[in-house]
Amino acid sequence: MKREVITTADGSTTIQIKDWQEQYHSKHGAIQEAYHVFIDSGLDLFKGRDINILEIGFGTGLNAFITLLESEKRNLTIFYTGVEAYPVSEEELSQLNYIEELDSVSRKKEFDLMHTSVWEEEIEISEYFHLTKEQKDFKYIDHSELFDLVYFDAFGARVQPELWTVELFHIMFKAMKSKGYLVTYAAKGSVRRAMLEVGFLVERLPGPPGKREMLRARKP
Is residue 58 a contact partner of residue 83, using CB atoms and an 8 Å limit? Predict the structure, then answer.
């Protein structure tokens, strides 16, 4: 499917799949959404200890890069696993403006390393941030009680409903530690019901720009 880089409402870029009219990040603001959903509603819950994060949909690397920047501000060591079946191309990466929009041009080396580093191997991107990329379909994730926090950033249920099922959330539940959290931009009733069926405790939170609500789930 044809992909193109577009500019979102806050000036940051993202990738759009034209046939689906679906974007990797919100067209209302890619950076704003990433901070609201994954940092303010997720990472902010963890203070003063090492944590393991799983990202469902590594994609452009925006969520990972913001998390790296925040790890240093917070003196927080993060072991980050990003799962992606279809990595973005070098041409697409060259058109993304995250390091400029985040006023982090001096960190270009780390952003590039996130994308050029080998898959299936833990790489130290910075003193506080260690990255492992796994290239696979989400249904083949097979971790057990490893992650404190999950960034669930898959394409929307409108275009890929199979990614928002009881089966997928069971894989997430298994991969997470007790009292771990999963955060996502999604707020559909069917998504919430699938999470509840698996055993998550689910709450609705105010959504990022352009969305009324989002979901946060906790494993008991």
Answer: yes
Task: For the beta carbon of residue 147, count every other beta carbon within 10 angstroms.
Answer: 24
Q: Is position 3 within any domain?
A: no
d(CA 211, CA 56): 20
For residue 11, what are its two tokens? 């000036």
Q: Mind listing the pLDDT tens digit for each residue in 38-50?
A: 999 999 999 988 9
Contact 182, 213 (CB under 8 A): no
Taking a C-beta distance cutoff of 8 angstroms, is the pair 73, 66 a contact? no
Say if 18 falls within a structural domain. Answer: no
Cα–Cα distances in Å, from 43 out to 29, 66, 181, 182, 211? 19, 11, 9, 10, 20
Tokens of 123: 């790489």
What is the pTM for the complete model shown?
0.97
The domain total for the chain is 1
DSSP of 28-72, one letter per residue? T-HHHHHIIIIIITTGGG--SS-EEEEEE--TTSHHHHHHHHHHH
pLDDT at 93 over 90: yes
Residue 154 within a domain: yes
Q: Is the pLDDT of residue 11 over 90?
A: yes
The structure tokens listed for 135 are 């290239």
Q: Which residues pair with 54 in a beta bridge?
A: 81, 150
Q: Give me the domain span that covers residue 124.
A: 29-218
For residue 212, tell me if it sits in a domain: yes
